[in-house]
Amino acid sequence: MIPNNFEYFIPDSIDEAIALLTEYGEDAKLMAGGQSLIPLMKLGLSFFGNIISIDRIPSLSYIREIKGGGVALGGLTTHSMIENSDLIKSKYPLLAEAVCAIADVQVRNRGTIGGNLCHAEPAADYPPVMVALDAKFKVIGPKGERTIKAGDFIADIFTTNLEYNEILTEIILPPVPAKTGGSYQKLSRRSGDFAIVSVASVITLDEKNNCENVNITLGAVGPTPIKAELAERMLLGKNLNEITLEAVSEKASEIAEPTSDIHASEEYRKDMIKIFTKRCLEEAVKRARGDGIT
Questions:
Q1: Which of 19, 182, 234, 259 would bridge 94 by S-S if both were Cys, CB 3.0 to 4.6 A apart?
Q2: 101-129, pLDDT tens digit by residue?
Q3: Of 84, 103, 107, 131, nearest to 32 (Cα)?
Q4: pLDDT digit string (tens) for 19-63?
Q5: In whole angstroms, how far apart are CA 276 and each of 33, 153, 187, 290?
Q6: Taking the model in full, what pTM does it have?
Q7: Topology agreement, domain 7-53 and domain 180-288
């Protein structure tokens, strides 16, 4: 199908893009890689009179270490750049696992992390991973720059807490403590499909291999990523044996808020959250007992 007519702008800078967003208001839409927006427009499910493409702003595409040991990702960094980054593989393989689960090579070559996050698809791979990693998002608008925690970024289905004239410019990943392990587990019908359920976890162990800190985030079982805080509390200070992980996984499934659709029933998703949470935690613990996230 062919989308309706629209004006197409290609700004050279962030300031120019913000000015255009401010001028055209709700009739304008920012486009990064276009892998989500263009299909919606072709299907007639989304229409904007003004499309502002920012994919030619080179200052938004990068992966670099920052002071303190963390890593910063530009909003226009493509999935394939993250997938092939030795820095990401060595420090955040949890993220490397997630990006490899996104669609196919062609989509990963064009799609961007910023565009994916701003699309706020409930079954997407990045959102639960960003929450599990305690990432922060740097956004810029006419009033200047502000930072949003990953857990506060998505407000609802396909809705973020960005103002209409703000741009997500950078994703900041915190440094990884010693004896930390992470994992991302996803159930989908086929490789590259959206998740039926997904789980991201990050665990830090103390000197006795007891749980010192943990983050468990569920994806595709609610309008936004769900941080399983009650399940996390059950792990703190505990030795992470199979019995403990079984009980925690059961608690995570109780927290989930899935709905039934053509892909899976609510009951099935609840059962799968339990199974995939346990798998995710087992892998995270295994990695934490090695030399950091490996």
A1: 182
A2: 999 999 999 999 999 999 999 999 999 99
A3: 107
A4: 999 999 999 999 999 888 888 888 888 889 999 999 999 899 999
A5: 31, 25, 8, 22
A6: 0.94
A7: no
CATH 3.30.390.50 fits 180-288, yes or no: yes
Where do the structural domains in the chain lie, given as residue ranges? Answer: 7-53, 60-173, 180-288
Structure tokens belonging to residue 204: 């830090």
Which two three-digit tokens encode residue 269?
């998703």
Residues in a beta bridge with 31: 53
Say if domain 60-173 classifies as CATH 3.90.180.10: no
Given this model, what pLDDT does residue 294 score? 38
Task: State the pairing for strand pair 136-141/167-173.
Answer: antiparallel
SS3 84: coil
Q: How many residues does the chain have?
A: 294
Q: Which CATH class is domain 7-53?
A: alpha beta
Does residue 291 have a pLDDT over 70?
no
Side chain identity at residue 36, one-letter code: S
* Region of residue 237 (left: phi > 0; alpha: psi -120 to 50; beta: else): left
Summarize the confidence of residues 172-176 as an average pLDDT: 96
188 and 125 in contact (C-beta within 8 Å)?
Answer: no
